Amino acid sequence: MTFLAPFDGSYLAEAALMRASEYGEALDEDVIALSVVPDDEAYATSVGWYETGEDEPFSVSYVTGRLRDGVDDIAPDATFRDERIDDGAAAAIAARITDVADEIRPSVVFLGTDNVGEIAQPVTSVAGGVAANATYDVHIVRYYAPPSISEIQLEKGAYQ
């Protein structure tokens, strides 16, 4: 069994990778962190992967190196995989994630997103496109830290 965590360096992608790593360690399963990187400096700048004027000129390998460092900091035992694409549209990114998932056949995909609640699939949602695939379970991570046991017990008490 393998867990897949799409990773773009965002706050919730970090949380999803952390959660996948925790589950992987507890269940003795492999974790793959997948970064899909469009070959587009404007896109990389808009999502915070690159700043114009950095010492290093823009390249996909530079961005993937930074993303790999982020993965290593959060989940050093995870396997890092990067995919290069030409199109930075959410649908293109989701399609590549889905293609990789079809290839590696994970049992669970861990998605960090705050807009998956609109699973009616907004056009700008990468998560919606990935979550729509029925060949794997999807673990949605909406908060950086999972709720504590006392918070869960309080919520449970509210429904009894």
From TrEMBL:
SUPFAM superfamilies assigned to the protein according to its UniProt record, in alphabetical order: Adenine nucleotide alpha hydrolases-like (SSF52402)
Gene3D superfamilies per the UniProt record, alphabetical: HUPs
Residues of the UspA domain: 2-142
Superkingdom: Archaea
Pfam families in the record: Usp
Protein name: Universal stress protein
Species of provenance: Natronorubrum bangense JCM 10635
